[in-house]
Design goal:
The protein has 265 residues and is α/β, with parallel strands linked by helices. The chain contains 8 helices and 8 strands. The radius of gyration is 17 Å and the shape is globular.
Length: 265
């Protein structure tokens, strides 16, 4: 896997710096791209300028998730929150155009108490349809993605397994919405990561990773990342690999794993 294919989340990493300084820090560290999971942390025009100045690509941005990160249901599949989801989607697509982002992740949600999974799935599908329509009408460049979570940490997640997400996409969205494949969530559910990648590689557009358990940097847990990176390449994956882990000390101190892959600044 070539070094320039590694991106990093500047919502989780380089947090010792202000958001607009993280782009250059990521590039100095050897990453070719960045991901922004929390757009509200900065101002899109300023972030776009920072990315351009740093010479780094914005690979992915997330649609605002409402209260999901705080343990709430979120937006994407929650009945009654359709208007809030559309507002966040419009804001994110506008930001993605400024940032020239490659992907837009539509965001996870949980099944709220007292609401059926079937009702949530119906809302989720309606929101996916609305996202496709808005995406087409605005001529947005970024590709839309969904990301399955894991049942261990999010037992009420609406899409809580990679196989569930793949079935949903194959039932009407394949070729229009891609699959965001997070190594961490796949492994937390007890799957063999490379086996699940091979099963769904026709749908996978972006891969993210962190170690299991604890969502730390590679080498902090149980996964063999050199073998995983090599196996993904051998299975035909040639897209970005997104480092999306919790840096529990200054980010540069967590990058020993990255030495063989980094792109010279």
């Amino acid at each position: 896997m070539s070094a320039q294919r590694f991106s990093t989340s500047i919502s989780l990493l380089f947090r010792e710096l202000p958001i607009v300084e993280r782009f250059a820090a990521a590039r100095r560290a050897g990453f070719g791209g960045v991901e922004i999971q929390v757009l509200a942390e900065g101002e899109p025009a300023q972030m776009a300028a920072a990315a351009q100045a740093a010479g780094i690509e914005v690979v992915l941005v997330n649609v605002g998730m409402g209260d999901y990160l705080g343990g709430g249901p979120g937006l994407s599949g929650v009945p009654g929150r359709e208007e809030a989801f559309r507002t966040e989607l419009e804001r994110t697509l506008a930001a993605a155009r400024l940032l020239r982002a490659r992907f837009v992740h539509l965001g996870p949600s949980r099944v709220p108490d007292g609401v059926s999974r079937e009702a949530c799935l119906a809302t989720y599908r309606a929101n996916l349809d609305a996202a496709l329509a808005l995406h087409a009408s605005t001529g947005a460049h970024a590709e839309l993605l969904i990301e399955p979570m894991n049942r261990v940490e999010a037992p009420t997640a609406l899409i809580g397994d990679i196989d569930v997400g793949a079935v949903l996409l194959r039932d009407g969205y394949a070729g229009h919405i891609g699959l965001q494949f997070d190594v961490y969530h796949v492994a937390m559910n007890g799957h063999d990561v490379l086996d699940r990648y091979r099963a769904h590689r026709d749908l996978v557009r972006h891969v993210q990773f962190s170690d299991v358990p604890g969502r730390g940097e590679p080498g902090s847990g149980q996964l063999d990342f050199p073998a995983l990176f090599r196996g993904l390449g051998e299975a035909g994956y040639d897209g970005w690999l997104g480092a999306e882990y919790f840096a529990r000390r200054p980010t540069p101190e967590t990058l020993a794993w990255f030495e063989p892959y980094k792109q010279p600044a």
